[in-house]
Amino acid sequence: MTTAKRRVRMGMIGGGEGAFIGRVHRLAAALDGELELVCASFSRDPGNNARTGEACGLSAQRLYPDWQSLIDGERRLPDDQRMDLLVVVTPNHLHVPISQAALEAGFHVFCEKPAATTLADARRLAATLEACQGLYGLAHTYLGYPMVWQARRLVSDGELGTLRKIHVEYPQGWLGTNLEGTGNKQAGWRTDPAIAGASGCMADIGTHAFGLAEFISGHHVTELCAALGIHGEQRRLDDDGDALFRTAEGASGTLMASQVCTGEENALKIRLYGDRGALEWQQMEPNTLIHRRLDEPMRVLRAGIDQPGLAPEALQRLRLPGGHPEGYLEALANLYRDFADAVRRGERGAAAGVPGMEEGLRGMAFIEALLESQAGTAKWTSLADISQRHDAEATT
């Protein structure tokens, strides 16, 4: 007789009524029945907090007025009742203080990206994680898609030969007008340096493009040349940007991220070119992966548990036969499922298959390299130089 896996107990900070991403996280976490929401502080507004808690079926005793009260209250509960992990779906400026406090209190953390608003803060959080030996996951949702894993496998198996060129883009159009001036909360905090950090568009979606490029290719970006722009009236943070980059493994690439591309939705797309083949994947058509081979007809790989030729790591992230679309919620659910398994196994640091602190640090180094490149006159800006500078500052 087998023993049923216990559901991992989850708390949430942020994600109250009117916040898109909080509901997405709750739906994704519930999809496979392996996690349960047991406590939350959804909003600093008492009415919003109460309404969201009622909608989620939480008892008043496990609904807290702020994140400090939640961490303290849950820490005092017996081990078999308190939450196992805390999900952080707040604006950027709260990611580090909440994550750090939760790790120090003995809880695992699954956080929205970016990991921090500065590389220095991300490095301090990494030190906390190492000292506390909890688990830390980062919601790079697109890395949960099965065909992204299929693409990664084809590259690592040498199907593309020597990788020469990487092109990744993420155009959106939702900030094409002065939406923050209308009272839109999502636009408001994303364009406020005090809340979002020193970058707008690149921190919000450019990090997704960067992470996807490094994940599929297995390459590490070493230097870049960037041009960031601000098109919104009286906007203080970048809403558009382009970068050339080079990798340690010898490829060159381009990255574009923009939130002022009229008519675009969430058109994340990546193309990789080697001397023997090429790959193309689009987030808005996630079940399709195009594989171009040298001197052979193009082939189209399709997602589905019954599709031949898919790698095991792609198949284990699929739930349905071919022709039944699996999308954004399922991709995030894959990260939650892998994270829950890691919690039950007692893993520490990083959960297998889930982006974590390493990706968080890489993302922040990428953002700071972009900003330095934009502000300076050097042709190329090195990510390693930025990290080494932080090392030197930390020892002085």
UniProtKB/TrEMBL annotation:
UniProt xrefs under InterPro entries: Gfo/Idh/MocA-like_OxRdtase_N, Gfo/Idh/MocA_oxidoreduct, GFO_IDH_MocA-like_dom, NAD(P)-bd_dom_sf
Xref: Gene3D superfamilies: Dihydrodipicolinate Reductase, domain 2, NAD(P)-binding Rossmann-like Domain
Pfam families: GFO_IDH_MocA, GFO_IDH_MocA_C3
Gene Ontology MF, one: nucleotide binding
Domain GFO/IDH/MocA-like oxidoreductase: 150-280
Gfo/Idh/MocA-like oxidoreductase N-terminal domain location: 9-133
SUPFAM superfamilies per UniProt: Glyceraldehyde-3-phosphate dehydrogenase-like, C-terminal domain (SSF55347), NAD(P)-binding Rossmann-fold domains (SSF51735)
PANTHER family attached to this UniProt entry: CONSERVED EXPRESSED OXIDOREDUCTASE (EUROFUNG), OXIDOREDUCTASE
Protein name stated in the entry: Putative dehydrogenase
Organism: Chromohalobacter marismortui
